[in-house]
Each structure stands twice: as structure tokens, then as C-alpha cells.
Amino acid sequence: MSKRALLEVIALDPEDAVAAQTGGADRLELVTDMAADGLTPSVATFTGIRAAVDLDLRVMLRLADGFAAGDVARLVGVAGELRAAGAEEFVLGFLTPDGGVDLAAVEAVAGALEGCRWTFHRAIDRAADRDALRKALDGVPGLDTYLTAGAAGGVDDGMPTLLAEAGRQGEPGYEQQILVGGGLRLEHVPRLLDAGVTGFHIGGAARPEGWTGPVSAPAVARWRAALN
């Protein structure tokens, strides 16, 4: 039997979370401030969402727009606060100014997660060398997923890369789940499923009214049906 594809939905508050769960989401990515492409939510937001749903929750660790780590000590502190509040899964990813992975920052923050599972987010789509980034991160504790569109411009541009990387799954540096997101549309799904992709991530696609409106349970349900 084929593995059920995972559907992850961005949630900003408990109402989003409940709608996403009702629609059939498997997991939520928790963020705030989508104008900055998603920053770390407050502990209160996390605990409110945790009380509202029983889905797995991946909490963003990102304090400012862009892909620089910034204040690593503060990031480590925030991670500790979220861990103390019960967070068990996270999302992070940092680059150096030349587009390489900021391994020191990633290892420092991952170390504060005490073995929790985490996703390296779309910073990979801005990396100077995706393959080098993956190999540099190989073996960092907890890393089990790459969120990627295959290209900075989105899935339309990145489809060849996504298909190529799906074909390499299981190789060193390619053992993590590919979670496709960033300009993802329903029409992309069949080709990605055929290539063996098992993770799909939606944000705006779950919000018919745009980012000023809530997650729509029927919109999420359409994605769940397509993935089934």
C-alpha cells in the first residue's frame, strides 16, 4: 500500500488550526507575520493552537525577514521557551551572505531542540549550491524534512529540481522527506506524486480570501482529496 501523502497547512491562530484540521490537514506550520514570509509565533499563540487541535505542530524559528540567523543566542532562548511550553517540532534554516548554509547557527539552534524533529525551510531555494547545503547538513540531529519549491521563484520554476531530488531520495543528504511548498497548485500534484513526493505544504492556497482571511476547511479538503 502506498504511503499517505502528508498535507501541512500554515496556521496563524487557533481558528486557522481548527479549520485546517477539519479539512484534513495532517500537520500545521505555526508562524506569525506573513508580510515577512513567516516569523516565530508567540508562546501564547503556540499554546492556544496546541489546546485547539491534536495535530502535529511545527513552529517557525525565525526572528526577522530574510535568511540570516541574526541573534543566535536569542533564537536559542526562544527555542527553549517554546520547548518549555510543550513544542516538539520546529522549522528553521539560515544562510551566510554568500548563500552557503550557516552551519554554526543551524547547529546551535538544533542543539537547543534536544533532538526534536525539524524542517529546513525554503532557505534551500536561495542557496548557492543546494547539493552542498544538503550534504553539509547531513547528520545534524532532528533534521527530517526539506521544505522547498525547487527554486526561489516557486514550483513552476523548480519542478525539474524537485523531480531530480525526488529521484535521489535515500542517498546521503537526500534521506529527508521532501515537503513541496511555494507557489504549489493542485495541477502540480499528480506529477509530484508520480515522482514519489510524499509531502505537500500550503499557505495561501488554503485561504480563498488571501492572507487577510482565515484558513478555509473546504479549501483544505480539496487538497486532501487530491492527495488521496
Automatic annotation (TrEMBL):
SUPFAM superfamilies: CutC-like. Signal peptide: none annotated. Coiled coil: none annotated. Pfam families: CutC. It comes from the Bacteria. Belongs to the CutC family. This is Copper homeostasis protein cutC homolog. It comes from Streptomyces thermocoprophilus.
